[in-house]
Specification:
The chain is an alpha+beta fold and 308 residues long. It contains twelve helices and eleven strands. It is elongated and about 105 Å long.
């Protein structure tokens, strides 16, 4: 039986996501399912395996020797708190949530957290979504972007200058590829596929070393969404090849994920900063001068604008 338990333990360690009875039954055909179940139960009792539940499936995960040694030094309450913190991953867990999941008293949880922090097993982080909450996670786990805010936050504060700078670079790159160079007043045909995609924009930012921050494609798409909402660019679906053998597949990409292209929008005169002053839309702008019947000094529009 010791040999069987060693085999089960070895398979469990190799599969960090966990294994089930069906896996073990296929991996150990020389043993009966009853013997395998008995071996699993003994490993669970000794702490070499732990149970994981994924949906309705029960899995077994191997516990490394070093982890077993750490856990053996903890009390039952400390182990319970540690396991819930471990299961929270990079999202972390709030003290109130710990209390609900463990049914322990607040004083017991506070003492457990203090012991775990002193032994460098866990750490506390602040969330940008809930600045007043302290979240706990394992010491070697990196907080998720939902907790830290990703690249857009610095010291729990949104870095607006950094966002604006990157958005400006994205827009300039898109604008340079949105209109024919020989005639910037012209437009490309409807089946044009040369508009940049988010992956191309990401490569442009990386190759030109615009920032040292490691940005993902999802981060770039967040900037592009902002430009779309601001009315500066629009999304363009990839052209579909409906020719012979095309089958309606995107001609611009073979990726099953829709690889949207982005096209800059021309700046309308009405959207110009000049519209903030009456001159930008003045009906007699061409007849205005320093002297005569229509001058800035006599302008009724200016008086109303200044009064406002």
């Amino acid at each position: 039986m010791a040999e069987l338990e060693a085999k089960i333990y070895e398979h469990a360690l190799k599969n960090s996501n966990g294994i089930d009875n069906d896996y073990l039954n296929d991996a150990l055909p020389e043993h009966t399912l009853e013997d395998i179940v008995n071996g699993v139960n003994r490993l669970l009792q000794s702490g070499q395996l732990e149970l994981l539940q994924v949906g309705r499936t029960i899995l077994y995960r191997g516990v490394h020797r070093s982890e077993m040694e750490r856990m053996s030094e903890l009390t039952s309450d400390e182990r319970l708190v540690y396991k819930h913190i471990e299961n929270s991953g990079g999202e972390g867990i709030w003290v109130r949530t710990l209390k609900q999941k463990t049914n322990l008293l607040q004083g017991v949880i506070t003492r457990c957290l203090k012991v775990l922090e002193q032994r460098a097993l866990i750490k506390s982080v602040k969330s940008v979504k809930h600045p007043t909450r302290k979240l706990y996670m394992l010491i070697n786990v990196d907080p998720s972007s939902d907790v830290t805010g990703g690249p857009w936050y610095t010291d729990q504060e949104m870095d607006s200058d950094f966002i604006d700078q990157l958005a400006r670079q994205c827009y300039q790159f898109i604008y340079a590829h949105s209109f024919p160079r020989h005639n910037t007043k012209a437009v490309y045909s409807a089946n044009h596929t040369g508009y940049p995609t988010s992956s191309q924009i990401k490569r442009f930012i990386h190759e030109n070393r615009i920032t040292n921050v490691d940005l993902s494609t999802a981060n770039i798409e967040e900037l592009l969404a902002m430009l779309v909402y601001d009315g500066k660019v629009e999304r363009v679906a990839p052209v579909f090849d409906m020719g012979a053998g095309g089958g309606g597949r995107p001609a611009a990409t073979s990726n099953p994920r829709t690889d949207w292209m982005y096209r800059a929008l021309r700046v309308n005169a009405r959207d110009s900063p000049l519209t903030d002053i009456p001159c930008g839309r003045c009906p007699v702008f061409d007849r205005c001068s320093d002297s005569g019947a229509i001058t800035p000094a006599k302008c009724e529009y200016f008086k109303k604008w200044l009064a406002f």
